[in-house]
Design a protein that fits this description.
This protein is mostly beta strands. Helix content is 8%, strand content 41%. Strands 3-2-1-4-7 form a five-stranded antiparallel sheet. Strands 5-6 form a two-stranded antiparallel ribbon. The chain has a two-stranded antiparallel sheet with strand order 8-9. The model has no long low-confidence stretch (mean pLDDT 96).
Length: 108
């Protein structure tokens, strides 16, 4: 295991986003495009969860996202962050706030 310092952790920005729209990306087996509300900004995020969840599962839910990653393109669709989940067996399990919080809330 590689140990991280508190300074390493401070570099990562994690915010709660509320998903307002989700759709499967055409001609892919795994990719879903999410439209995510972070309060003062909206972002598009691509997740490879279509093999486990239908797009409708995501809409209206809040999840933590890493929001300061370099943007990447997947099948020509830009992703502006990364949703967080736990690896449990074969199916990822999402981290969800225990109660509704304002979109854009910083995870501490």
């Amino acid at each position: 295991m590689i140990m991280a310092t508190i300074e390493d952790l401070e570099k990562i920005e994690i915010k709660i986003g509320k998903i307002t729209f989700a759709e499967k990306i055409e001609n892919t087996d795994k990719l879903i495009r999410l439209e995510v509300d972070f309060g003062e900004e909206k972002r598009q995020i691509v997740t490879a969860m279509a093999g486990f969840y239908e797009p409708e599962y995501f809409v209206g839910k809040e999840f933590p996202f890493i929001t300061n990653l370099d943007y990447r393109k997947f099948k020509g669709v830009e992703s502006q962050g990364m949703i967080m989940a736990c690896k449990v067996g074969e199916k990822p399990v999402f981290l969800i706030p225990e109660k509704e919080v304002p979109p854009g809330s910083q995870v501490i």
